């Protein structure tokens, strides 16, 4: 095991979109990034090059968060390479392959989305939390943190993608549960709740959201960018919210504000 004094962040789904934005922002303040994704390695390699362009470094671990063996390998490779984990960002997520009315939602689609967005991250957090407690007890890390990427869909009904909404509502409770359990170990847990963010996931509904933003669905009338999420996580990672845990941080252009 190689030990380093630099802080190590594991970011799931970091090959593109929000995950890449988080990686770049953390790299700018000196964090080493473990870039996790699945499938084609090229996007992850692009993220790693962008991290290095910011003067930091990292590694790629292709692993499926829905697989118990892959989750363990992600943690083992991180610890074998760096000897520590200071931050876990549960960012990997998917929407349903096809948006269907809730009366047509299939069990297969529900299982797939929940596995990636909720069940996998729950058990990855469980595994990382155990390791973090050991590292804290060994005085190898101080106040490590866990951040879950939620969504305004946790409280906003979209009847054509029930699977996604339900998964993100579950992420909200997962955050509270782990925040409660881990506080005594000095591990704070947060939820970042993005709004309408310009990523490959939202590319297919760009015209719809362009219109809604122009009509004022959000007080801040623009698309959110991955860097907006990255900046919020950087504030957490750098220790600027030490007396908060289980907290939802809305990065949604004000979408959550109820207005008349």
Molecular structure report:
This protein is α/β, with parallel strands linked by helices. The chain has a single domain (8-249), classed as Rossmann fold (3-Layer(aba) Sandwich). Helices cover 43% and strands 14% of the residues. It contains 7 helices and 7 strands, in the order E-H-E-H-E-H-E-H-E-H-E-H-H-E. It has a 7-stranded parallel β-sheet, sandwiched between helices. Helix 1 (17-28) links the parallel strand 1 (8-12) and strand 2. The longest helix is centred in the middle third of the chain and has 31 residues, at 107-137. It is globular and about 50 Å long. The termini are far apart. The relative contact order is 0.14.
Overview features:
7 helices, 260 residues, alpha/beta, Rossmann fold, seven-stranded parallel sheet
| Overall geometry | globular
For the biggest β-sheet, the strand order reads: 3-2-1-4-5-6-7
Give the terminus-to-terminus CA distance. 58 Å
User: Based on DSSP secondary structure assignment, what is the total number of beta strands?
Assistant: 7
Averaged pLDDT: 97
Domain count: the total is: 1
Low-pLDDT runs of 5+ residues are: none
What is this structure's SSE topology?
Blueprint: E1 8-12, H1 17-28, E2 32-37, H2 42-53, E3 58-62, H3 68-82, E4 87-90, H4 107-137, E5 145-149, H5 162-182, E6 188-194, H6 206-214, H7 226-237, E7 247-251
Parallel strand pairs: 1-2, 1-4, 2-3, 4-5, 5-6, 6-7
């Amino acid at each position: 095991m190689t030990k380093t004094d630099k802080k190590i962040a594991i970011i799931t789904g970091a090959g593109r979109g929000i995950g890449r934005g988080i990686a770049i922002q953390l790299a700018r303040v000196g964090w080493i990034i473990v870039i996790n994704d699945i499938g084609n390695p090229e996007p992850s390699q692009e993220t790693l090059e962008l991290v290095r362009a910011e003067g930091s470094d990292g590694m790629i671990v292709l692993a499926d968060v829905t697989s118990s063996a892959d989750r363990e390998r992600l943690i083992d490779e991180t610890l074998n390479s760096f000897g520590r984990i200071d931050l876990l960002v549960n960012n990997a997520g998917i929407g349903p392959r096809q948006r269907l009315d809730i009366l047509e939602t299939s069990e297969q689609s529900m299982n797939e989305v929940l596995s990636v967005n909720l069940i996998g991250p729950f058990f990855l957090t469980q595994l990382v939390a155990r390791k973090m407690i050991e590292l804290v007890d060994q005085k190898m890390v101080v106040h490590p943190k866990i951040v879950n990427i939620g969504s305004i869909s946790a409280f906003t009904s979209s009847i054509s993608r029930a699977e996604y909404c339900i998964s993100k509502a579950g992420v909200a409770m997962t955050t509270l549960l782990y925040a409660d359990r881990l506080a005594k170990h000095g591990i704070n847990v947060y939820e970042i709740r993005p709004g309408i963010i310009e990523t490959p996931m939202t590319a297919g509904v760009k015209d719809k959201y362009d219109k809604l933003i122009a009509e004022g669905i959000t007080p801040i009338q623009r698309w959110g960018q991955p860097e907006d999420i990255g900046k919020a996580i950087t504030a957490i990672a750098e220790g600027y919210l030490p007396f908060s845990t289980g907290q939802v941080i809305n990065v949604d252009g004000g979408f959550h504000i109820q207005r008349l």
